[in-house]
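Late entry, flavin mononucleotide complex.
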Amino acid sequence: MNDPLYALTRRIAFSKSPEAAHDWALGWMSKPWVARWLSQRYQSQGPSQSYTAAGLTFPNRIGLAAGLDKNGDYIDALGALGFGFIEIGTVTPKPQPGNPQPRLFRLPEHGALINRMGFNNLGVDHLVANAEKRQWRGILGINIGKNASTSLEDSHKDYAHCLERVYAVADYITVNISSPNTKDLRQLQHGEALRALLDTLMNQHSQLASQHGAHKPLWVKIAPDMSDAEIHDFISTARDYPINGVIVSNTTSRRDLIQGHPSADEAGGLSGEVMREFANERLSFVAQHSPDKWCLIGAGGVSSGEDAAAKISAGAELVQFYTGFIYHGPRLVQRSVERTSALS
Ligand SMILES: Cc1cc2nc3c(=O)[nH]c(=O)nc-3n(C[C@H](O)[C@H](O)[C@H](O)COP(=O)(O)O)c2cc1C
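Prediction complete; structure with ligand written out below:
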C-alpha cells in the first residue's frame, strides 16, 4: 500500500523492539495535533456505508481488534484513523503486569506476530475512566477477561465484575474466553464451564439492561483451534443464551503454519496473514452452523481490502484486524472501509 508516511514510521518502529515500537507510535498518535492531522490524512474519502447490527449503527464495518489498546488510552487517536468501531481491552478487574518480556515477536516473512502478553493491563477502573473521557463517537467495544490469579472456578466473578463496571460506557461488550496466554482460559469455551459462565453473565446482563434502561449487545470471542465437534458443542450451549454473536477468532496455537521459522518455538498466539485461510474456514463453519440471528465478527489475517471483503463472504457482518494494521498502517483501514462499503 503506497503510503510514504507510514513506510517511514514503520522503518523507525521496526528498528525498535515490538513493545517499544507500540508505545512510541501510539504515544505520537495521541498528541492532539497529530491526531487531528492523521484524521484529515486517513479518513476515507471514498464511499463509507453505515451498517446496523445488534441494534447498533456502525459508521462502517471495519473495527480494531482487541489487544492493541488494552487500557483505552488511545481511543481518540485510533478513532481518527477511520475505524467504525474500536474494541479496547482485554481488561481484568485488578491491574496485572502480564508475562515477562520479551513476549511479542515479529515474523515479517509471514506478515505475522506471536504474542504471549498475558492480559497486561491497568485494571478496569483505569479503562472506564478513559472511556468516559473519549471524544470519538464511533462504536466502542470493551473486551473483558479474568485475572491470572483468579482460579477457573471463580472466573465468572471476574467477568461479572468487569461487565458491571463497563456496562455504562461500552457500546458493546466482548467476553474473551479464547486467549491462549492465560492458563486454562480456553476451557471456558466448553461444557459446564461455559454454561456456568453464561448463566452468571446473562443473568447479570438482563439486570444491568433494566437498571440502565439500555440493552448493550454482547459477543463471545472464540479460538480458531476448536475442532468441528467442539464448535458444535459451543454453539449448542451458547444458543440457549441471548448473546448477540461470536467473534471468530482469536490468535491460533498452530505452528505448522510457520514451520522452520526461528520464532516458531516461541509460546503464544499466532496472528496475521499466515492464519487468514484458517480463520476464514473456521468463520464459515461457524456461519453455517450458528443461529441466523447471531451477528458474526470476522478477525484473523486481514491485510488488504480484499481480505476484509472475504470475511463478509465467509459469513461475517463486521470485520476486525490487529496484525495487518501493524504491517500495513492506516491505509488498510481506508481500503477495507471502501471495499466493504460496496457490499450489501
Ligand atoms: C499483540 C496482540 C495482543 C492481543 N491481545 C488480545 C487481547 O487482549 N484480547 C483479545 O481478545 N484478543 C487479543 N489479540 C487477538 C486479536 O484481537 C485478534 O483476534 C487476532 O490477532 C487475529 O487477528 P489479526 O490476524 O488481525 O491480528 C491480540 C493480538 C495481538 C497480536
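The domain at 4-341 is CATH 3.20.20.70 (TIM Barrel). Will revisit in the morning.
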